[in-house]
Amino acid sequence: MNTKIFWIFGILQSFSLGVIVFLLFRSLNLIKGESVIGLDTQILLSISFPLFFLLVEYIIYKKR
Fold first, then answer.
1. Rg of the Cα atoms in the chain
2. Staple partner for 50: which of 11, 17, 41, 43, CB 3.0–4.6 Å?
3. How far apart (Å, rounded) are the C-alpha atoms in residues 64 and 6?
4. Exposure string over 20-37, b if 16+ CB within 10 A, otherwise e
């Protein structure tokens, strides 16, 4: 039961973190008026950072 709850909230947390990272870089592009980083890098960071964060949380959770 606890593992299911971990995965539900972990995935929700990672998804919302990815959206926040993507919107942060998009707003930086709009503020500056030109591309701060490319769209491919925005997508890569928006996916890889939350997945890495979820993996670290899972490792910490499994040690308990």
1. 15
2. 17
3. 13
4. ebbeebeeebeeeeeeee
Span 9-61, pLDDT tens digits: 999 999 999 999 999 999 999 998 888 888 999 999 999 999 999 999 999 99
Cα 4–23–7 angle (5° rounding)? 5
Token pair, residue 32, equals: 């500056």
Does the pTM exceed 0.85?
no
E strand or H helix at 26: helix 2-32
- Per the CB < 8 A criterion, the answer to whether 46 and 26 are in contact is no
How does DSSP classify residue 1?
-
| DSSP type of residue 33 | S
